[in-house]
Design brief:
Elements (H helix, E strand, L loop, with lengths): L1 H17 L7 H29 L15
Length: 69
């Protein structure tokens, strides 16, 4: 009985650890990583844009813009 539970646990663990990545070749893996890095870089640019948009206006200039939202 204990051996059966251990075998089932090992099978379940191997299924969880392997996941869906066994069906992709190295080219697809590289493309997936490149796409993920591209999305993260775009999100970082958006974060910087949002920071500068909502930053307080400078006191040096006489023209003060209004921030949206």
């Amino acid at each position: 009985m204990m051996m059966k539970k251990l075998l089932m646990a090992m099978i379940l663990l191997s299924i969880v650890l392997v996941g869906c990545t066994t069906s992709e070749d190295p080219i697809q893996h590289g493309q997936r990583l490149w796409l993920q890095e591209d999305v993260q870089a775009r999100q970082m640019v958006e974060d910087f844009d949002m920071f500068w948009l909502f930053d307080h206006a400078s006191r040096i200039t006489q023209w003060h813009g209004q921030t949206g939202i």
